[in-house]
């Protein structure tokens, strides 16, 4: 890589970090308002004022106030796919996906209050909750090819979708249980406990394939 290319890459990295930090500040301001006033009572203008930006700047980072809440879920889905790719090739699809769900839901104690605020704001708004359930379908679509690869079968084979959809639904139910509680425990512990209730029943589909991930 030439010096000019390295300089350009470093500048692009700094820009992305600044953008991520700015979006994060907007998210935090929005969550405070949602917690204090309720999601439906807060406008984009309110969020912009609290974050000391203009509404126009808000839309540089988010398409709507719904997306302020749903951004974490999308990032979680991306992390889930990455975690699944990183699991050892010797693991079967069910074992690997279970481990990926647990790894990506692990939340440090200092981050749980904000995470609970986010999910409770979603639960309090039927429209956002409906979109959140739609994100679950997107997660399944993201994971199915990775499960199929690990099983050594075609992604159109129904088994990878059954595994991804079933474990995803169980993880979603576990998140709901965590939100309904005090939010002090690590959600990963609840998700692991929920998944372990059914993972053994998928034993026949949990054999690593010789054609699995390289």
UniProtKB/TrEMBL annotation:
Q: What is this protein called?
A: Probable transcriptional regulator, TetR family
Note the superkingdom of the native organism.
Bacteria
Q: Name the lineage.
A: Bacteria, Bacillati, Actinomycetota, Actinomycetes, Mycobacteriales
| Coiled coil location | none
- Keywords, in A-Z order: DNA-binding, Plasmid, Transcription, Transcription regulation
Q: Name the Gene3D superfamilies for this protein.
A: Homeodomain-like, Tetracycline Repressor, domain 2
Pfam families listed in its UniProt record: TetR_C_14, TetR_N
Against PANTHER family, the record matches this protein to:
HTH-TYPE TRANSCRIPTIONAL REGULATOR RUTR (PTHR30055), MYCOFACTOCIN BIOSYNTHESIS TRANSCRIPTIONAL REGULATOR MFTR-RELATED (PTHR30055:SF238)
The ranges the UniProt entry gives for DNA binding are 43-62
The membrane-spanning stretches of this chain are none
- The HTH tetR-type domain is annotated at 20-80
InterPro entries listed in its UniProt record: DNA-bd_HTH_TetR-type_CS (IPR023772), Homeodomain-like_sf (IPR009057), HTH-type_TetR-like_transc_reg (IPR050109), HTH_TetR (IPR001647), MftR_C (IPR041347)
- For this protein, what is any one GO molecular function term? transcription cis-regulatory region binding
């Amino acid at each position: 890589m030439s010096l000019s290319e390295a300089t350009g890459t470093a500048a692009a990295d700094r820009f992305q970090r600044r953008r991520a930090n700015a979006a994060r500040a907007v998210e935090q301001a929005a969550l405070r308002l949602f917690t204090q006033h309720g999601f439906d009572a807060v406008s984009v203008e309110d969020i912009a004022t609290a974050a000391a930006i203009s509404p126009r700047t808000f839309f540089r980072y988010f398409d709507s106030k719904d997306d302020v809440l749903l951004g974490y879920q999308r990032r979680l889905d991306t992390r889930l796919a990455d975690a699944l790719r990183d699991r050892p090739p010797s693991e079967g699809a069910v074992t690997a996906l279970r481990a990926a769900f647990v790894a990506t839901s692990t939340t440090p104690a200092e981050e749980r209050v904000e995470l609970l605020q986010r999910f409770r704001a979603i639960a309090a708004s039927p429209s956002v909750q409906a979109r959140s359930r739609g994100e679950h379908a997107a997660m399944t679509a993201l994971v199915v090819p990775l499960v199929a690869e690990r099983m050594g079968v075609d992604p159109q084979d129904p088994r990878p979708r059954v595994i991804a959809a079933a474990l995803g639904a169980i993880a979603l139910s576990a998140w709901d249980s965590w939100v309904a509680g005090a939010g002090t425990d690590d959600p990963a512990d609840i998700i692991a406990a929920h998944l372990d209730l059914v993972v053994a029943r998928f034993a026949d589909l949990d054999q690593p394939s010789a054609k699995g991930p390289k």
